Amino acid sequence: MRITHRQALDVVLAHRSDKIVVTTMTSAGLWPHLSDDPLDFAYIPSAMGHGPSLGLGLALAQPSRGVIVFNGDGCTLMSLGNLVTLAQHRANVYVIVLDNGIYEVTGGQPHAGAQHVDYAALARAAGITRTYTCATFSEWQATAGAALSGAGPVVIHLKIEARFGQKTPKPPRPMAEQIRRLQQALGLP
Amino acid sequence: MLDGPTIAAALKECGITHVVWIPDSELGTWEAALTSTDGLTLVRVCREGEAFAVAAGLWLGGKKPIVMIQCTGLFEAGDALRNVLHDMKLPLFIVVGVRSYYLHQQGATPDTCPVYTEPIMRAWQIPYVVLDNRNTAADLVAEYRKAVAEKRAGAVLIAE
Fold first, then answer.
1. Mean pLDDT throughout A150-172?
2. Nearest Cβ partner of B61 from A79, A85, A186?
3. If phi over 0 gives left and psi between -120 and 50 gives alpha, with beta otherwise, what is residue B80?
């Protein structure tokens, strides 16, 4: 049985420590039910596919603090070059690819890579050496501690259940407030 | 005259910390100066949309990045640009090389890049100036400082 989206997030919550968590798409709607930390950044409205790039910029700016990025599989496919860009840097970015094979927020249409893309292999081919793949909740529970610690970049491919009938999530607070909160938490003026 | 050493010095004078870029044949000649300037980090990306998102992350994390790309990349990066400048309202500064600008002025090229670059900049509501071979890096500094003072995004188009 595949991991549920909620289970995927629950495990991250237990292991995030003081990392920034960037959420996109459906994750941005679910995560605020689990966490309301100033280091949470709901990247919404977003430019689809650019979550990992945003996370990389944050990690380069704040090298002592890790950045976890939840990215959908459809998002990942939209900007595969992100993986190559990420591989250039010793940046503590932990990209979690949530693979459900569909564009969830548009009603559940399959994307071009549905059911046959190995995202961990793509990341390795791009030059990212730390990759993980989990297909069950127990695998993810057993893997998360190691995967979400140590030096980045890291790409984690989670095979999750597809959910249909989802709506485009709304951010927990306006973007300007999110930015203010995050920068305050980072000790920025 | 705009060249690598004067541009790199100008960016340093402005306090720029990162140049997120994909070069073209003109901007590419600036690479050695950009990479050898203390305090300035060059971040190479694979597609121009990425450049805006990386720059946004750097800005959120307290750095002062600029994006440096060719106009073709500007065309490609529309959604990322829209998101960063208009949804997130980040005051990013952009340097855009305009391919075939001079030839277009002379009516001597079929290249459509110069036809569309300025209309695209206006469509995205990004204040900009064109810098050509009569300008110097001081003009870039002035435009950057104006954007900072007005807390807004801005751009210079480099005539090529």
1. 92
2. A186
3. alpha
Instruction: Yes or no: say if A92 and A117 are a contact pair by the CB < 8 Å rule.
Output: no
3-state DSSP percent of chain A in helix, strand and coil, to 5: 40, 20, 40
ipTM score for this prediction:
0.97
Question: With an 8 Å Cβ cutoff, are A54 and B49 in contact?
Answer: no
User: Which residues in chain B touch residue A48, judged by CB atoms under 8 angstroms apart?
Assistant: 79
Residue B150 binned pLDDT confidence (cut-offs 50, 70, 90): very high
| E runs forming strands in chain A | 20-23, 40-42, 67-72, 93-99, 102-103, 109-110, 130-134, 154-159
Least Cα distance to A104 among A149, A42, A46, A169 occurs for A169
Q: Is A63 on the interface with B (CB under 8 A)?
A: no
The three-state secondary structure class of B64 is coil
CA B22 to chain centre: 10
Has this prediction a pTM greater than 0.90? Answer: yes
How many residues are listed for chain A in this entry?
189
Distance CA B128, CA A118 (A): 43
Please give the order of strands across the beta sheet that includes B128-131: B41-44, B18-21, B65-70, B93-98, B154-159, B128-131
Which of A60, A127, A82 has the alpha carbon at shortest distance from B50?
A82
**3-state DSSP of A8-31:** HHHHHHHHCCCCEEEECHHHHHHH
Summarize chain B as % helix, strand, coil (round to 5). Answer: 50, 20, 30
Q: Choose the closest CB to B63 out of A48, A61, A182.
A: A61
With 90 as the cut, is the pLDDT of residue A105 above it?
A: no
